[in-house]
Amino acid sequence: MKLSLTGLAGMKIRAGDGLQELGHPEMLSTPFFYLAQPGDLLRLMDSEYKFNVATYAAEVENSWIYTYNYAPDESWTVYRQDLSGNSYRQDDYMFTECVYFRVCLRKMNGTEFEGFEDINDILSFEKNATPLPEMKPWLRKEIERVSKRVMDIREKNELSFALLTDTHYTVNGTWDDTSVSIQQLHDELGFDGIIHLGDFTDGMITRDVSRYYVEQVLGDLKKCEIPVWTVLGNHDTNYFRNNPDRFSLKEQCELYLGRNEPRYSIDFEAHKLRFIFLDSFDPDEALRYGYNAACIQWLNKKLENTPDDWQIVIFSHLTSISRLQYWAKEIRGENELMGLLNNHAGKILAYINGHNHADFLDNEESFPIISIVNSKCEAFTEYKPEGFITPDRKLGEPSQEAFDIMLVNTEQRQIRFVRFGAGKDKIVTHGRAEWL
């Protein structure tokens, strides 16, 4: 079968490190990584062109997992140094092993691309049919363990949700295992929804590639055919490491939230329960992290309009108070936000956030604040607030994964969290968060 490719005029693949680089109108390259199996074939269909192939081994360097170090081009692969200016060809290229690859094209006469050329009219990727992968034994075992745990403790009329954060989608990363696990758990447990607390990607690549990765993550979650609620993370602006190809706030709302505004609420009327989702980052502000005046005003109305006999859970990428995050000594709007939350603390079951890439339970305020560890298999201990827990992580075993099954019981004013993968279970009850 033929697999469609995506090409970008003006981009090259660098021979030295295999990374993409814009500003080369004489080249057209694939910004995406494609996975090839032995026997797959690249075939040139237009003799006015020539092509070059860069291949990448499906190997993961420890630095991507155990240090604060984001992989260039958001790819956990190792470039095999097989592309050069002398390796362009017009004959077929057959793959002899399982590798990721990207392709770079030139015109035989050396002229520039005009931007309308379709790579699929020039080059064909002919792929052999491959059987669907079987469920990994260790993943199946963890699904069974967590399913049994949830069924043992779940009570009648409790709402259940999959809760995850900081997936930071990466080529050759762990997202496929995460999405399969959530889908299988939903089949067995029946979630009422899925909540993602932001940072879908690293935000270091072009908007088109970031959009593709985000749509892949959201598409996998939506396979469960239940609501998916998200918040905007700081990396979701696509600004990281001075990336100039950013998403506007409007584009973020449309892409990540499927809404026109960056904050919203969801009501479960039968349970007298309200979920509130906040935005907490603006790369154009001097104080990037925090809650602007529009957010504070909106939240004030939402809290005031919530009946006193209802309960509220607030979700944000960022915590509500600066002492619980590392990257800024001050959070924009912190005093105003905390004043509002403290005034309505009797309604608030919990404030739940991601961003810190670590677990933490805070009971020092008038409501519990819960930080959730990153879903992406990453376990660096640098740049964490004091006392935060970074669980051990390892590829190819349950600790590779980390997300929660969240059970909300409004009759008991209680939330229970069952951890899938690395980390511990926890509970919010009687206004406090505790480890189990």
Automatic annotation (TrEMBL):
It comes from the Bacteria. InterPro entries: Calcineurin-like_PHP, Metallo-depent_PP-like, STPP_CPPED1. GO terms for molecular function: hydrolase activity. Residues 160-358 form the Calcineurin-like phosphoesterase domain. SUPFAM superfamilies: Metallo-dependent phosphatases. This is Calcineurin-like phosphoesterase domain-containing protein.
